[in-house]
Design a protein that fits this description.
CATH superfamily: NAD(P)-binding Rossmann-like Domain
Number of domains: 1
Structural class: alpha/beta
Shape: globular
Strand content: 5-15%
Number of strands: 13
CATH class: Alpha Beta
Helix content: 40-55%
Largest sheet: 7 strands, parallel
CATH architecture: 3-Layer(aba) Sandwich
Strand order of the largest sheet: 3-2-1-4-5-7-11
Length: 350
């Protein structure tokens, strides 16, 4: 990526996008960044701080995923678009999957790519997707080749009523590939998707509402002191996810989809043990709750029996080689991610 190029980052106040903006500025790039409202000072304070730190390099624009045409002004003159904005609510709090997550994710992708079609300067779109665009429940991975998560699959098991967030990610990513492939030859803009696992690590914004952060929030608040369920997650540090976005733009050979995660899943109990040793808090458990007990208390946690059957106690392996080979990502140890996650969480608690 040449130094004088302008990059657009959508949803710039979010957990991942804030890191992308910061890394672009650190590299000397000019950045256009969209936020829902420039009046919400609390939510964008960290971006205003970046404007002071890098004078003249970061311009903020208002845009709304649901409003057609709202990304056109911010995209003027940009050569790379990082489309990161997408709602990530806590699954058990979703009341209307279609309205709360599927529509914003799908319409947002359509509106951003519609602006890309009209903006002659754009050569590359890097879309933030997710591993859940590849699988819906952990059990799905057991059906894949070598029982290993890889980018040759798309999630076929999620729906508006079962894993609505996962469904929103697969619908949005498939739409992006459809719009990319519909370009006349030779294609003017290239599409790369970044598909991270559960994203943890330090937040640059105290008001980040990412669903991935709520899980650890419960653990750190001591709400799970009786023990944690036998759940397994693909994990990645937010800083590696941001770096992957930039590397996808820098490497002319990068193409397709990239899973960003450690090469195997980590158990919830492992998080708990690491965090207990970091925080020295006796309210963070060291033990797992037996699956039978979790199944009985599922309704209280807002988890269906179907979900528990397809996810409880199912670890799997992950093919993350493209991220190593093409993007030269070096994954930091989970201990470091959790330590940095904890200190930024503590700071946000004030």
């Amino acid at each position: 990526m040449a130094d004088n190029e302008i990059s657009l980052v959508t949803g710039a106040s979010g957990f991942i996008a804030s890191h992308v903006v910061q890394q672009l500025l650190e590299k000397g790039n000019d950045v256009h960044a969209t936020v829902r409202s420039t009046k919400n000072q609390k939510k964008i304070k960290h971006l205003l701080d970046m404007q002071n730190r890098w004078p003249g390099k970061l311009t903020l624009f208002e845009a709304d995923l649901l409003v057609a045409g709202s990304f056109e002004a911010s995209m003027k003159g940009c050569s790379v678009v990082y489309h990161i904005a997408s709602p990530f609510p806590i699954e058990t709090r979703i009341r209307d999957g279609q309205k709360e997550v599927v529509e914003p994710a799908l319409k947002g992708t359509q509106h951003v790519l519609d602006a890309v079609q009209k903006c002659e300067t754009v050569k590359l779109v890097v879309l933030t997707s997710s591993v859940v665009a590849i699988f819906g429940d952990n059990a799905d991975v057991l059906e894949m080749k070598n029982k290993t998560l890889s980018t040759e699959y798309f999630n076929t098991t999620s729906s508006v009523t079962h894993n609505a967030y996962s469904y929103s990610k697969v619908v949005a990513e498939k739409e992006a590939w459809k719009l990319h492939d519909a370009q006349p030859s030779p294609k003017r803009w290239k599409l790369v998707t970044i598909n991270p696992g559960l994203v943890l690590g330090p937040s640059l914004s105290p008001t980040s509402e990412s669903g991935s952060l709520s899980l650890l929030d419960q653990l750190l608040r001591g709400q799970l002191f009786l023990g944690v369920p036998d759940m397994w997650f693909s994990i990645v540090d937010v800083r590696e996810v941001a770096t992957a976005h930039l590397r996808a733009a820098e490497n002319p050979d990068s193409h397709g989809r990239f899973i960003l995660a450690d090469n195997t899943t980590h158990g919830f109990v492992e998080f708990a043990r690491i965090l207990r040793s970091i925080t020295q808090s006796s309210r963070i458990p060291r033990n797992k709750i037996p699956n039978s007990v979790v199944r009985m208390s599922g309704p209280l946690l807002g988890l269906s029996q179907k979900w528990l059957k397809l996810n409880l106690g199912i670890p799997f392996d992950i093919d993350n080689r493209p991220s190593l080979d093409q993007l030269s990502i070096v994954y930091r140890p989970l201990e470091e991610t959790l330590a940095d996650h904890y200190s930024s969480w503590k700071k946000a608690q004030g």
